[in-house]
Fold each of these.
Amino acid sequence: MNRKYRKTLIAGNWKMNKTPTETKAFMTELKGLLPKGRWCDIALCVPAVCIPAAVRAMRETRVGIGAENCNPNPSGAYTGEVSTAMLVDAGCKYVIIGHSERRAMGETDEEVNAKTKAALEAGLIPIVCCGESLEQREADITEEWISMQIKLALAGISEDKIRKVVIAYEPIWAIGTGRTATPEQAEEVCQLIRTVVRKLFGSKNARATTILYGGSMNDKNAYELLAQPDIDGGLIGGASLVPSKFVKIIEDANQPTA
Ligand code: PGA
């Protein structure tokens, strides 16, 4: 982390977990545990049907609510989809884009790019995900793969908008597996992402971009990961479903930095 130049963000990704009723209970418990005072930015990205309950429960808090996906079109014949304007109107501040689980369902780099632009246009903060598979890491093409994903995701985004984008590095082999990247592995790729952003948008913008690590980050390993200079927070799946674990990670994000 480097709080002098950029925001620290701890974001939960609930995936397809919790009902609206369970959301209300979780938020009540979380509110009781959240540290008082100025801490890092906090987001909880929840299933679309849980957004109203989450927004209502966290209205007076510093926790921003987010969605896990959006459709880039403004409106129309897209059965089952949710637009960015709908998310904003429902009280969302964030939206996860290009998660590897959605890419595995067929989401393309072009769609990730269109969704990122639509989110920015609507005033949402996109949390844009990238990450390599185990095969790609073993074939030693992580650098090329991540550079390509970032270039395609951020293509055509204007300089005044880039600082609103949060990037999440999530190695696919570490998601939900309990196998976390080492702090060194995670830092190496987060640093690479910052270099790519620097080439595209200049050093001031690169220095101001929040880059998260995600993939089995939990209350036990967060401290070390967050101590890395280019890891500005976490995108947390499993551990964000348990209020005490999520709060411990938020506390770890408050560690002193150089
Ligand atoms: P995990 O999920 O923390 O359960 O590995 C992270 C994510 O997929 O965003």
Amino acid sequence: MTSEELFKNLIAHAKEYGFIFPSSEIYDGLSAVYDYGQMGVELKNNIKNYWWNAMVRQHDNIVGIDSAIFMHPRIWEASGHVGAFNDPLIDNRDSKKRYRADVLLEEHIAKIEDKITKEVEKGRKKFGGAFDEAQFRATHPNVLRNAAKAAEIRENMNAALNANDLDVLKQLIIDCEIVCPVSGSRNWTDVRQFNLMFSTQLGSVSDEAGVIYLRPETAQGIFVNFLNVQKTGRMKIPFGIAQIGKAFRNEIVARQFIFRMREFEQMEMQFFVRPGEEMKWYEYWKNERLRWHQSLGLGNEKYRFHDHEKLAHYANAAADIEFNFPFGFKELEGIHSRTDFDLSRHQEFSGRKQQYFDSETNENYVPYVIETSIGLDRTFLAVLSAAYCEEQLANGEERVVLRIPPVLAPVKLAVLPLVKKDGLPEKAREILQTLRSDFNCQYDEKDSIGKRYRRQDAIGTPFCITIDHQTLEDNRVTIRYRDTMQQDRLPVAEVAVAVGSFQ
Ligand code: GAP
């Protein structure tokens, strides 16, 4: 099965089992907007808690806030979003379809890189055990030619983006002979900048003065509360402020399921440091954040760093943690050294000092900031895609199992009476009652035990316990483990410990 087919199955599975529904589905949906169902919201909440616990609860010097989505419109002028939060757009005149110019070029580069991968695979088949991939990549003429081509296009694209030279960007699309995937033509308009912020109206006045924006990042809510938190929390530098919340972007290219949405959630932390110490902390947070991802156990090989060549207007260093999604390595989290840009701009635009008095150095200064910014929905997709598994069993049967890390699983424990009679449902409910305040549990008595196990596998429940006639005698149950499907017999009193130890 190709990874494309597997991804389609995953999307269908996410809907069938109540993880993710297309938004407004009975009205034919709303592009790039999704709703989380009964299982999805549990998984999402567990991811939020896992992040909050690691970032806020485990650090003496990091606290959390929850700022409003609506903020004063001047904030977005100060942050640079009104002027510079743009994507370069290009239209195809024949299909009337709109694309991001940089994405068209990225996809073109990806096709060239695909050719390289295919060439390497051909070499591997031909030379078998004696194949030396590094040497092959360094010497094979087709690989070298394509690698040079891809590097040149990327370099030219980054230079054009950095210089905001939209004519060069268009020329690159023409030179690469990129065609519209819908019309197949090269009849392109000029490239234009398009602001990604959604605007709306505050109050009843429908003039320019009433225009406000839906926040495109949660970070600014932290910056404008920097002094509130620092003073009321008596925080000493270095310290951090964390926040989880919705962000909105009018994305032009909104594809790949919940990877790029118009309404999404971010988990961000701004870490305020002494000027001059930002690179030390930048490296620190890069490593810390990678460790956090790896702690989920989805596979260390699924992550890699990508250092930015094109820096955002506010950053002096930036890197992405990329995840190997079913459609390749893509950004999951950004770590940015934002300098004193944001606080200085708010100081300038608001006329209020945004300074910190450092009692150790006896100095007043605007702190520098290291930001960690992770997409909640992208983390959800990373977890789901790493967990989704279509498995052939030894007895010839198939099962679809979500190997979600137990700490994140929507349902931790299923309580299943073997049959619907003989006092087993009553015993099962009695046991359920003792466990449900510690774990999210599900009770199920319908269908055969095999079918019930499959249903729990499909939503990623790591543990099932079965209550049978013997349970009434000895107060012991059968516990079944999702990943190995192994079963053990243990006293009811030990179930909580067994489930808890995997969390
Ligand atoms: N405050 C910095 C900031 O917002 P960003 O790289 O634009 O930086 C941070 O976004 C993270 O938010 C990304 O790494 C990604 O996980 C998530 N994200 C950004 N745009 C998104 C979208 N349209 N849909 C889903 N997640 C998105």
